[in-house]
Amino acid sequence: MNNEKIARSFMNLIGILVALFAIFPLVWMVISGFKKQEEVLAFPLKFFPEQWNIRNYREILTDSTSFFPDGASFTHSMLVTFGVAAFSVVCSLLLNSMAAYVFARLDFPLKRFLWVYYMMTMFVPGIAVYITSFMVVDMLQMTNTFWVLTLPGIAYVWSVFFIRQFYLNIPVALEEAALLDGASRFRIYASIFLPLSIPPFVIMGINVFLGFWSSFLWPVMTISDPSLYQINQLIMFFKSQRNTEWHYIMAAASIASIPPIVLMLIFQKYIMQGIKLSGIK
Predict the structure, then answer these.
(1) Neighbours of 94 (CB within 10 A)
(2) Which of 1, 15, 199, 224 is deepest in the core (most CB within 10 A)?
């Protein structure tokens, strides 16, 4: 028994150390937003500022730094980025869950071939098709629009795979009973499968949200209108203009990290359920 307590205490200590190492960059970034310019990269390292000052955060939020291009502002970019991410999450979950239901429950010609063909796209790096994707959206005249930021990333093979694995474990008896009552396939999907899909939806929804929230290369390639700048695109523009003012950059990055952190805190219960679910699969 003593050995078990010692082992458990040792594992808890390791977990605490790993957590501290993981959270250190985030804490340092937030605290650096309260520092003066010369304190951020001071050597030796000064973890805490000599005098705490919220001026950096206030100027970023009120856009009083005048470092942003005409038509762009930090708060507006945050709202646009959040709107893009939220819209994409809803559309992605609906589209991919319907595809997952089709592959999990329906029989149709070439189903196995199409599933293998679709799964093969998981092994193609997204950056490898950026040029061809840009050529497509350019020919469709979608650049500098809301849709170029959302539509190309809605179909997500990992979501289809993950949700399909979940649907395969829903008892067939529920579906058979609904079919006997005259329910259509879409009614079965909407009334039975969707309400049971909260755990995989939360996991994949957060994954999709983080992907769109942290996107940088694709917006840079397709968006030149400052009013549609995504938050990371705007921060990089800010950095290119004043690359030595790290106190502002740290403040901007800290504010931009708030939505993903809040999202993780709100849905942490479902995240743990999803992790257990993926382990069972």
Answers:
(1) 13
(2) 199
CA 50 to each of CA 27, 29, 163, 248: distance values in angstroms, whole numbers, following the listed order? 16, 16, 51, 17
User: Is 245 exposed, middle or buried, given 0-12, 13-18 or 19+ CB atoms closer than 10 A?
Assistant: middle
Can you give the residue ranges of every domain in the chain? 67-280
Of residues 241, 239, 262, 261, the one with CA closest to residue 251: 239
Spatial distance between the Cα atoms of 114 and 135, rounded to a whole number of angstroms: 26
Q: How many Å apart are CA 229 and CA 73, to the nearest integer?
A: 9
Tokens matching residue 101: 């239901």
Residue 88's Cβ-count burial label (10 Å; 0-12, 13-18, 19+) is buried
Sign of CA dihedral 262, 266, 270, 272: positive
Strands (E), 15-137: none
Return the structure tokens found at 106: 């329906």
Q: Name the pTM for this structure.
A: 0.85
162 and 196 Cβ atoms separated by less than 8 Å:
no
pLDDT in single tens digits along all 281 residues of the chain: 567 777 788 888 888 888 888 888 888 888 888 888 787 777 777 778 888 888 888 888 887 556 677 667 888 899 999 999 999 999 999 999 999 999 988 888 888 898 988 888 888 887 888 889 899 999 999 989 999 999 988 988 888 998 998 888 888 888 888 888 888 888 888 888 888 888 888 888 988 999 999 988 899 999 988 888 999 998 888 887 777 778 888 888 899 999 988 888 888 777 766 665 554 44
Amino acid at 80: V
Domain 67-280: which CATH class?
mainly alpha
Q: Both tokens of residue 180? A: 């006997």
